[in-house]
Design goal:
Blueprint (H helix, E strand, L loop, with lengths): L6 E4 L5 H12 L3 E6 L3 H12 L5 E5 L5 H15 L4 E4 L17 H29 L2 E6 L3 H4 L5 H21 L3 E8 L5 H7 L1 H14 L8 H13 L8 E4 L8 H6 L1
Parallel strand pairs: 1-2, 1-4, 2-3, 4-5, 5-6, 6-7
């Protein structure tokens, strides 16, 4: 499927995975809406990189936990291009808290995380849904996490929110069919500044090395890996909907050392 001239909204696309997705879509001819909450300077850099690929871009500030901001994002895209073909729901948040410390999270933490990761994603999808349906071949991609499959991750609240997102992916895939496909990507650890700052340099490097030494493919994800999967889902997976695609380098298979003993 040719993507040239199509329009994508990528939430949380100033840096990291969102920026990687926006850039790869731009390289394939997609006009992109770059969304940010606070990181204006970095969002401008991402927009500049996308525009250099010869596509049109739009920079829109907005917090997806606010429904009015979601509707403004969708309206901005349709006002400029008259269409939305792709929505990458990448924006997310967490609180880093040890799973063993049940006092590390309170109700407010859960509310804040769910407001973005679950409610915000729903609101953004709802806002874009009429244009995505009008496209006739719309695609919604949820950037989820293996945390939602196995209960691991930066905190229990984060893992629970991603589990809810995976369930919502199936619900929305049913309700938006047949005009729109909805799928989720579930990466394991990703090489991003967000994780490095959240865990702290020492713990981040320790976790990364432990994974790289054990998982079958021997490396953790990079934003480009997630972007490549997004590209496949929007351009070549025409009969794929309601799926959660695990992107963990084979970690779910168990330690690589076990396979060497067989």
């Amino acid at each position: 499927m040719s993507l040239a001239g199509k329009v994508a909204i990528v939430t949380g696309s100033a840096t990291g995975v969102g920026a990687g997705c926006a850039l790869l879509l731009a390289r394939n001819g997609v006009n992109v809406v770059i969304n940010y909450t606070k990181s204006l300077a970095e969002a401008e850099e991402t927009e500049k990189a996308c525009a250099a690929e010869g596509v049109e871009t739009l920079l829109v500030q907005g917090d997806i936990s606010v429904d009015a901001d979601c509707r403004r994002l969708a309206d901005a895209a349709t006002a400029k291009w008259g269409r939305i073909d792709i929505l990458v729901n990448n924006a997310g948040t967490t609180k880093f808290a040890a799973h063993s410390d049940l006092e590390a999270l309170d109700a407010e933490d859960f509310h804040k995380i769910y407001a973005v990761n679950v409610v915000g994603t729903y609101q953004m999808t709802r806002a874009a849904a009429p244009a995505l349906k009008a496209s006739g071949e719309g695609s919604v991609i949820m950037i989820s996490s293996v945390a939602g499959l196995s209960g691991i991750g930066s905190s229990i609240a984060y893992a629970a929110s991603k589990g809810a997102l995976n369930t919502m992916t199936m619900s929305l895939a049913r309700s938006l069919a047949p005009e729109v496909r909805v799928n989720a990507i579930c990466p394991s650890m990703i090489e991003t500044r967000w994780l490095r700052e959240g865990y702290g340099e020492e713990r981040y490097e320790s976790l990364k090395k432990r994974l790289e030494d054990s998982i079958p493919l021997g490396r953790v994800s990079k934003p480009e890996d997630i972007a490549q999967t997004v590209l496949w889902l929007v351009s070549g997976a025409n009969l794929t909907t309601g799926e959660t695609i695990r992107l963990d380098g084979g970690a779910h298979l168990g330690p690589r050392v076990l396979t060497k003993r067989l």
